[in-house]
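Re: that chain you flagged

S.,

Sorry for the slow reply, it's been a week of failed gels. I finally had a moment to sit down with the sequence you sent. For the record, here it is as I used it:
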Amino acid sequence: AEICRRIQPKYFVDDRLEVLRHLVGLVPNLFAFRPRLEDKEEALLVHLITSGQVKSVRDWIDIEMAIPSLA
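Prediction finished late last night. Pasting the structure tokens below so you have them in one place:
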């Protein structure tokens, strides 16, 4: 999170919710790339996605379509 505070990225992609959850509010566009879920994380993923804080993506094409400058 400290690095993101310094460089202020617009986009961040990761498959670990443990990483993404710490970036909510720091990075405006968070993508869960085929997120790896622990049993306890399923509720967290649902919350992050339904609240619009994280977008779940299946592949790089989904990410490309979600970022206007890449489409």
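What I noticed first: The chain has a mean pLDDT of 87.

Talk soon,
D.
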